[in-house]
Backbone:
């Protein structure tokens, strides 16, 4: 049985933008949107959660650790499913599905990112903090100006790792009927039925391009930022 | 600390249920006031609800019914794709007003939601290699494929206790297993099987005349919304009388469609 990629060409627009502009955005564009927004949000989410988890105040440290452990102990698909029902209830009105997915992805990835942040900060020698404090800097300033700038640079490879996972994790949004790339492929496959190989090869390729582009960008970023370390 | 977590969790949980329960009222008036009927539909199940290749919009038998009901109400339609797992909770939460998603009426479901009169009637059959299956006995001890979470799974296990039922994520995977010889038959509603058959190489597969269940599809409406339920029932009965219901059937299941079927039912005031 030869491969017939006509099914891809015939549905190319749908693969890329879904039902837009007559309906919600879908396909590759939605996957991109979900991934980028969740990446940005979970960067800050992870940073905040990580800093809270190393706080010297137990009233802050214990609850944040509890949240982290709780989220890390659940499969992402459950987090997405729960958020789908929980979020509209908390807001008291129906929310767009893509928002509930972004929230779930952010929540989940932040918990993992916080551990990277924690390890990154602990990886900076104690002497740095001691030196900074003895020059008269407060704890907050020490963290902001001495520790974090060095730690964040060390965290980049781990961040990239997490973000690549996140890009691929967007595919789980299909469980709540969000028409991102995987869902769109399923819809087309259900209609055409006889081209599953072509369709799923194509989307595997798209995901690969996506992730590869991202890792290349981050490698470039790492190089650009490496100079400061040499000083 | 543990106490705080407990409080947060219980607030979240209680919120989930309370918000769901507090929305009852006159749904029909609500919909008219909103000016929009939110319908839970399937977007990947031809010919009931699927994406049209050219227009990239959702079309199908279910969608035509929803449109007709909304037109009668004088409101717009908002189509909200649901899955078999999310359709009932979404209705109970009040996020959708009506389910039109190939939903079989059964007593278990009827305890939780109300169903309209039957707007589509089909039965569960088998899709097999041509000539391989003459009666149910031929399937004893064989592997049979179907889709997860469907009523087909239960019916097949009941009809052929010796068979192994393999549940796939969706029907295309089950069909792929059939073409690769991993299962002896795929079982589900005939209306879906007809669609699957039309995509397979001509003359190699068939749907033998073995029916193991009746599958009446109903439109789902939340309990306690008699006004809306009565309106929907009245509308679909009218559609039968004017011939609109048959026209919709012929559009998706007529002789020139991808899924030719005989219309063995009419919409009547059943219970």
Residues:
């Amino acid at each position: 049985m030869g491969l017939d990629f006509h099914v891809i060409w015939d549905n190319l627009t749908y693969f890329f933008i879904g039902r837009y502009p007559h309906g919600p955005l879908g396909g590759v564009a939605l996957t991109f949107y979900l991934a980028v927004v969740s990446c940005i949000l979970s960067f800050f989410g992870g940073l905040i959660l990580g800093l809270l988890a190393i706080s010297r105040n137990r009233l802050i440290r214990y609850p944040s650790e509890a949240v982290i452990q709780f989220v890390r102990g659940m499969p992402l698909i459950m987090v997405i499913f729960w958020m789908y029902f929980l979020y509209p209830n908390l807001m008291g009105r129906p929310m767009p599905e893509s928002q509930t997915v972004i929230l779930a992805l952010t929540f989940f990835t932040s918990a993992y990112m916080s551990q990277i942040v924690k390890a990154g900060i602990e990886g900076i020698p104690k002497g740095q903090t001691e030196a900074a404090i003895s020059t008269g800097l407060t704890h907050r300033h020490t963290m902001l100006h001495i520790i974090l700038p060095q730690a964040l640079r060390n965290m980049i490879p781990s961040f990239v790792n997490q973000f690549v996972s996140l890009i691929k994790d967007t595919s789980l949004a299909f469980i709540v009927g969000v028409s991102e790339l995987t869902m769109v492929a399923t819809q087309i496959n259900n209609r055409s039925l006889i081209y599953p190989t072509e369709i799923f090869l194509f989307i595997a390729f798209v995901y690969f391009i996506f992730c590869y582009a991202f890792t290349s960008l981050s490698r470039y970023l790492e190089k650009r930022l490496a100079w400061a370390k040499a000083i | 600390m543990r106490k705080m977590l407990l409080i947060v969790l219980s607030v979240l949980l209680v919120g989930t249920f309370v918000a769901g329960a507090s929305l009852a009222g006159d749904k029909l008036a609500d919909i008219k006031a909103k000016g929009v009927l939110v319908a839970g539909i399937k977007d990947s199940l031809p010919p009931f609800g699927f994406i049209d290749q050219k227009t990239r919009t959702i079309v199908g038998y279910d969608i035509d019914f929803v449109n007709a009901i909304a037109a009668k109400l004088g409101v717009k339609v908002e189509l909200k794709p649901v899955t078999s797992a999310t359709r009932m909770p979404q209705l109970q939460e009040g996020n959708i007003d009506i389910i039109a998603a190939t939903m079989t009426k059964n007593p278990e479901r009827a305890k939780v939601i109300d169903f309209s009169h039957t707007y589509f009637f089909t039965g569960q059959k088998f899709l097999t290699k041509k000539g391989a299956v003459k009666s149910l006995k031929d399937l004893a001890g064989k592997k049979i494929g179907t889709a997860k979470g469907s009523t087909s799974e239960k019916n097949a296990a009941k009809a052929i206790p010796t068979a192994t039922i393999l549940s796939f994520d969706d029907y295309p995977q089950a069909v792929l297993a059939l073409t690769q010889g991993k299962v002896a038959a795929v079982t589900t509603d005939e209306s879906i099987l007809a669609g699957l058959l039309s995509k397979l190489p001509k003359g190699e597969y068939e749907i033998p005349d073995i029916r193991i269940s009746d599958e009446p599809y109903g439109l789902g409406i939340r309990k306690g919304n008699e006004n809306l339920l009565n309106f929907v029932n009245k509308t679909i009965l009218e559609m039968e009388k004017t011939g609109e219901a048959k026209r919709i059937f012929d559009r998706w299941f007529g002789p020139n469609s991808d899924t030719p079927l005989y219309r063995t039912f009419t919409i009547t005031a059943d219970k």
